[in-house]
Structure formats: C-alpha cells, structure tokens
Design a protein that fits this description.
By secondary structure, this protein is mainly α. The protein has a domain of 45 residues. Helix content is 68%, strand content 0%. Helix 2 packs antiparallel against helix 3. The longest helix is centred in the first third of the chain and has 13 residues. The radius of gyration is 14 Å and the shape is elongated. The two termini are 22 Å apart.
C-alpha cells in the first residue's frame, strides 16, 4: 500500500514541468494516522469519525480537487 502511494507521488512529480509543481506529503501522513486509528476500534461510527477528522478534514487543496474528480 505504501509503495503504491509513493509510486503515485513519483508519477505526479515526473509528469509535470519541473519547478512548477509543489508536492505536499501531509496527506500521506494524515492517511496513515487515520488508518492506524481506525485499526484501534471495530465501531464503524468511530472509524468514520477518524477518517473524517484525521484525514478528510485536513486534506490539502490538491486532495480535495482529486476527490471531486
């Protein structure tokens, strides 16, 4: 899973003109924080709250645009 995310970041970085793109890795860190928190409970309501609070609410503008697509 982590390798797939790193590959996605690499493709995004190499598919644009150098110097014009900023890559924010905070979304990756937030994803894994949310993922680890979700693993601590079997309560699906709490799991959804973790995803919303720890990942989606902290999304970068690029992630927000990606989610819209």
């Amino acid at each position: 899973m982590r390798q797939s995310i790193l590959q996605l970041v690499f493709v995004a970085a190499t598919s644009t003109v150098f110097g014009q793109t900023k890559i924010f890795t905070s979304d990756i860190d937030n994803f894994w924080t949310a993922y680890d928190s979700v693993q601590t409970t079997e309560d699906t309501i709490k799991q959804l709250e973790f995803i919303q609070k720890l990942y989606l609410d902290k999304a970068s503008s690029g992630l927000k645009e990606f989610m819209e697509i």
